[in-house]
Amino acid sequence: MAEIFKRAGNDALDVNKNVQPTIGDISLTTHGSDWYWAVTAVMALATIIFMAWSFTIPRSNRIFHYITASITLVASIAYFTMASNLGYAVIDVEFVRSNPVVAGMTREIFYVRYIDWFVTTPLLLTDLMLTAGLPLPTILYTILIDEVMIVTGLVGALISSRYKWGYWVFGTAALFFVAYNIVIVGRQHTKRLSTRAQSTYLYCGALTIFLWFLYPIAWGLCEGGNIISPDSEAVFYGILDLLAKPVFGAMLLFGHQKIDPAELGLHFREYDDVAAGEKSGFLGHRNGANTTAAAPGVETSVTAPTTTGTHPTTSAV
Ligand code: RET
Fold this sequence. Notes:
Layout: H1 2-7, H2 12-15, H3 30-54, H4 63-83, E1 88-92, E2 106-110, H5 112-131, H6 136-157, H7 164-190, H8 195-212, H9 215-224, H10 230-256, H11 283-287, H12 291-294, H13 300-307, H14 312-316
Antiparallel strand pairs: 1-2
Bound molecules: retinal (RET).
The site of retinal has 20 residues, from helix 5, helix 6, helix 7, helix 9 and helix 10.
């Protein structure tokens, strides 16, 4: 009976043997580690700057600062790990190369990179999709597909046989879905927002789409194809991550300096805010008066139900 099934053509277990080598032939050198330390420092510095920046605005408006600082914080820990030559698994390469920088049978694969991305890419998407004022179900669904993309990338990277490319295909299909929601659905939603929110979304979204499509290429050259060395892998992913996290974050927070979160449907309470649900919670605190007039570039039609008039508690504060 078993023979019949074998002849039917399922050779998966023959192709993917249970082999886990422990010594990596193709590994990071001190140059690569130095670069990882440099990226660690930039990520940590960006975290401090984003946190400090958040103290300059009212607490109820800090959501984007908190999300963005969390992104660089997690990245700095992941980069600390890779700079220390930790957080990797040794995997048999599919393609044995003659080029000395990638010669050998086994390669160091930094799985910690994917743990970083698993946490931070949903936060990046949240930053972006909240800026577009997208509804919660769309945000959650996009995040789920994004997690599929990261997990398939990780599983593929840890597989030695050609089956790894199947995971790359799943991941890339997921990326197209995420991109659709950013480019088409997100942009539709920004149409009813202020020009400032529209341009912030446009610039940050364009940067995201451009960068994110370079990741599967990097994967193909590093974990997949074993074409470039772990040191070059460090530089490739490092530059992408620097642009996708600190640079993206700075652009986004700069844009949000003049965007009222209430315009995006975000209302948060201050601890001294008794009736936050009845007003915007944004400039009302600082101006104590009509918040609609005080928010530059905000279309009153969007925020009118929650921002008009002065609530008794506003003038009391
Ligand atoms: C993988 C391999 C599988 C196919 C695809 C991938 C895409 C990864 C992306 C990662 C983005 C990471 C970011 C990190 C921030 O610092 C997993 C490489 C499509 C898009 C933005």
